[in-house]
Every structure is written in C-alpha cells, then in structure tokens.
Specification:
Radius of gyration of chain B: 19 Å
Order of helices and strands of chain A: EEEHEEHEHHHHEHEHEEHH
Structural class of chain A: alpha/beta
CATH class of one domain in chain A: Alpha Beta
Low-confidence stretches of chain B: none
Largest sheet of chain B: 2 strands, antiparallel
Low-confidence stretches of chain A: none
Largest interface: A-B, 24 and 17 residues
Distance between the termini of chain B: 54 Å
Order of helices and strands of chain B: HHHHEEHHHHHHH
Strand order of the largest sheet of chain B: 1-2
Strand order of the largest sheet of chain A: 6-7-8-3-9-10
Oligomer: heterodimer
Radius of gyration of chain A: 17 Å
Number of helices of chain A: 10
CATH topology of one domain in chain A: Rossmann fold
Number of helices of chain B: 11
C-alpha cells in the first residue's frame, strides 16, 4: 500500500534541546498506525512535529507536501486533522459551533457533514446547543474527533483519545474510530497508552524510547514480541 | 423626578460612548490578554481624521464611514507592525508598547492639529425630546451605538469569520490546527477595536470638544466599565459602560461637584477589584499548572 505520510530522519527540538533524534515513520493510506512508548518517549512531540507545532529537521512528506516547511494552519488545509492532547475543545462555544470551526477550511456545505457526524455521535446531536465545556470527558472526546472529521481530512492524528476516560467509553470511542476509518477511507495515526487495545486495532506500530524508534513493524509482530509484551502489555 | 430621569438619560448617552470603548478594550483583551492603553488615543486620532474630512466639505455620514474604514485598516496595521513583534514577549513589554503608542498618537495629533480645542459638528440636532426628558442628540448617540452593537453581535454570532475570530481568541493552538489563520484574526480584532473606538470618539467629540487629550477621561470610564462588566465579557463591557455613565452623572449631579466626577470611576474600580474581581459577567480565568 502507498504511504500517505512519511517521516525521514526527523529530529525535533524544544528550544535548543533535541527530543527526537532522527526517526522514520510511515503511515499507509487508509491504514492505522500507532505510536507506543513510555512517558517522555517523544510520541506527542512526533505528532506536534508533523503539524508544525515544534521546530523540526528532516523530511516530513504528506501527499507531495514537505510539512516541515509549512505552518500549522497550512498543514491543516492539506488535510491533516490533529486532535491534540487535552482535545483542543473550544469550551466556551456550543457543540455545533465547535463542529462549524472544524468545517472552516473544508469545501462543501457544512450542514451535510454535520448531519453525518450526528449520525456517528448521536449524543452530540442532543447536545448541539450546549456549551462544549459542559460535556463529559467522553462526549468532549467524541466532539474533538467529530470536529477533526469535519475537516474532511485524509489523515486523522489522535493524541491519546483514551486519556482519562472509563474503559467502556474508551471501547465505544475506538469502535467508532475504526468504523469511520473504514467508511471514510481516512488514515489514522494514533498515540496511545493503552498498548493492548491499540495493537489490536492498528496495522502498523512503532515503539519509541527517549526519542528513538526502537522497534517497528506490523502490529501483530509487535504484539507477539516477548519484550514488548512484558514492558507494555504486562503479560 | 423629572430631573432624575433627565440625568439618567444623559448618563445613558455618555455610557453608550464608554460602552463602545470598553467593548474595544475587551475585544483586544480577550484575543491577546492585553489591555490596550492606546485605545483612547487611537479613537482620538480617528476623530481628527473625521474632523479633517468634515472640514473638507464631505457630508457627515460619508466622513463617518470613511473614518471607520481608515481606522479599521489602521488598527490592523498597528497589530501587524507594532504588536506582533512583541507577541511572545512578557506581558509587561506589550503593555509598555501600548503606552508608547498612546504617547505617539497624542504627540502626533498635537503636532499635526495643535492642542487647541476644536469644535466638532454633531450629526444630530439638539432638540428636546419626550417633554425635555432627553435630547435628540443623546437619542442619536444611543441609537448609533446600539446599531453598532447589533451589527457586531450579528457578525460574531452568524458569520464564519466571526466564529473563527472567537475560536482564535479562545484557543489559538486548536484554532491553528483547524486551519484558522490566527494572526489574521488578531489583526482583524485590532481593526474592529479601532473602528469601534472611532465611533466612540466621533460620538463624544461634539460634547467634549476635540483636542489630543479628549479621550483620557473617557478611556478611564471605559476601563471602569470593562472591569465592572468583567474584562472577559463583551456583553458585560456594554452593561458596565452604561452603568458607569449613569452612575457618574447621578453622583455628579446629586452628591459631589461635577469636577470630581472622575473620582467616581476610580472608586468604582477599587470597589470592583476588592469585592468582585471578575466583574458582573466575567469568568474567572483558571490556569492549570
């Protein structure tokens, strides 16, 4: 399958200090790739480098564009939708306004897409006039994903969608992500602490440690690796 | 009773001007966490532009519209040229920059137009209305301000750009990730603030007479209004501005000499800061660390 996103020897910096030391990552068209690793391994930094939110070196290729040279808002315009840590919800705006912001750059009538999102997430339709800040954590995560999908993205970047949510809610959200990936043919790049769930869903996986990729391959291969099982899956 | 109502209405007219300028302050504060101390002088300078145009025999309302457009562009330019370079600097740096702007506008106006008082024409005739309860001039000021507020409300509520501006003010990073050009939204915000200030300046100039220091008192009342309403709330700014206008007028009429009216604003600021720091409609800023 063709790669939609390719990182080649990417380094990333916070101020003067280098936190990614030249990593290679490939996300395949309509596939789901997961980045695993402990806290501080550089998972979130990788996502921030892709979206132009930290200074980076190396090549970040996304369907003919060199992302490392572009601004965050240009990258969003190319079709990269990033749900950041903490979900990036506009808490002072209503649910519907949040969705409209997602549709800000996308062409086509926003209402049609909004109806599609309300189909995926019926609870958002019930809450459409409410302030987004009044939603529960799970609902806010759904809103964040729906907002990102309003951009009609080709690549959906999710930073720990399970963070702070009850296991049952997490399962529901992942089921919807999987369904959307199949129905919308959108590629997904996922950072996730819940390694067993992530490896179950993804087709490719990368293991990061202190700014290096230490292991990569099919999700199944990583799930069967005894060392990864011990450190990240706990069995 | 008649006099009381009269004072309330003329207070509302003054309050409408404070409300406009307070709204301009709140817009910039929400977008950049910055109190723009130059807001009053920017408005004064806009008023001089209007005055020049009127003196050039332009019809008043044509001059009004052109001044608003020039102020809008000028506000955007100020953001681009002066404010953006200190965007990531400590807040005090940005505050000092706005104080510098205040001095620059004040001195430039004095240099071009001199410090002598100029008469500024009012677009509204000065006739008593409703059995001398208020004048047509006060009515006109209130009407213009209301029309502007309604237009702004509709813009922010119903247009894509208005929504994008609100989003950019609230969560710039997330707005960027949604493909919004946050820098352009900030510049637009300064443009709007400058144009709103221009309306305030033009409305108040016939009463105060035009001179480079015309807006210093008005800015203080506007600041009080913004604080009273809650510096994060545009609606609060409008209500706060009106309350300050009426309070100032009533206290000046019944309690103290009108030369001491400015003290009312300072006392109100202290009362608000001590008893209700977030104002009437503002929200507490919670920062997670």
């Amino acid at each position: 399958m063709a790669a939609i996103l390719e990182l080649r020897a990417v380094k990333a910096f916070y101020g003067q200090s280098e936190v990614l030391h030249g990593i290679d990552v490939v996300v395949e068209e309509a596939g789901m790739t997961v980045l695993l690793g402990a806290n501080g391994a550089g998972k979130t930094t990788t996502l921030r480098a892709i979206c132009g939110m930290v200074r980076s070196e190396g090549e970040i290729l996304f369907s003919g564009h060199r992302l490392e040279r572009c601004s965050t808002q240009q990258i969003a315009g190319f079709g990269v939708a990033h749900v950041p840590e903490g979900r990036g919800t506009f808490i002072g705006l209503t649910v519907e306004e949040n969705l409209r912001i997602g549709g800000y750059t996308a062409s086509g009538p926003p209402n049609e897409k909004m109806q599609l999102m309300y189909g995926y997430f019926p609870i958002l339709a019930q809450r459409r006039r409410q302030q987004a800040g009044a939603l529960s954590g799970g609902e806010q995560q759904m809103l964040a994903i729906a907002r990102a999908l309003m951009m009609s993205p080709r690549l959906l970047v999710l930073d720990e969608p399970s963070f702070g949510l009850a296991p049952r809610v997490v399962e529901a959200i992942f089921a919807i992500i999987e369904r959307i990936r199949r129905e919308q043919q959108v590629s997904v790049l996922l950072v996730e602490q819940n390694a067993s769930l992530a490896l179950e869903m993804a087709d490719r996986a990368y293991l990061l440690e202190t700014g290096y990729v230490v292991s990569s391959g099919s999700a199944k291969m990583l799930a069967d690796d005894p060392q990864i099982r011990r450190s990240y899956l706990g069995y | 009773m008649h006099q009381l109502l009269q004072q309330i209405f003329s207070g509302l007219a003054a309050g409408a001007v404070y409300a406009s300028l307070a709204l301009a302050l709140v817009m910039i504060y929400r977008a950049t966490d910055l109190v723009n101390f130059a807001q009053g002088e920017m408005a004064m300078f806009s008023t001089y532009i209007a005055w020049t145009l009127v003196n050039a025999e332009l019809p008043f309302w044509a001059a009004f519209v052109i001044t608003l457009a020039v102020s809008f562009v000028g506000g955007m330019l100020i953001e681009r040229i002066v404010i953006r370079p200190v965007e990531n600097a400590p807040i005090l740096t940005a505050v000092v920059v706005t104080i510098g702007l205040l001095l620059i506008f004040n001195a430039t106006a004095g240099w071009i137009y001199s410090y002598t008082l100029q008469e500024f024409p009012s677009p509204f005739p000065d006739r008593p209305l409703f059995g001398a309860l208020m004048t047509t001039r006060d009515m006109g000021v209130i009407a213009v301000t209301l029309a502007m507020l309604v237009a702004l409300f509709c813009f922010f509520r119903f247009t894509a750009t208005g929504l994008a501006m609100r989003a950019a003010a609230q969560n710039p990073e997330s707005a960027r990730l949604s493909g919004i050009n946050v820098g352009r939204m900030l510049a637009l915000g300064w443009g709007f603030a400058a144009a709103i200030g221009a309306v305030a300046g033009i409305m108040v100039a016939p009463v105060l007479f035009l001179d480079p220091n015309m807006m210093s008192g008005v800015l203080l009342y506007a600041f009080t209004g913004a604080l009273l309403g809650g510096i994060t709330s545009p609606f609060g700014a409008v209500i706060g501005g009106l309350i300050v206008g009426v309070t100032e007028n009533l206290v000046g009429t019944y309690l103290i000499a009108s030369q001491l009216k400015l003290t009312v604003a300072l006392i109100l600021i202290i009362i608000v800061l001590v008893f209700r720091p977030n104002g009437l409609f503002g929200t507490a800023v919670v920062r997670r660390v």
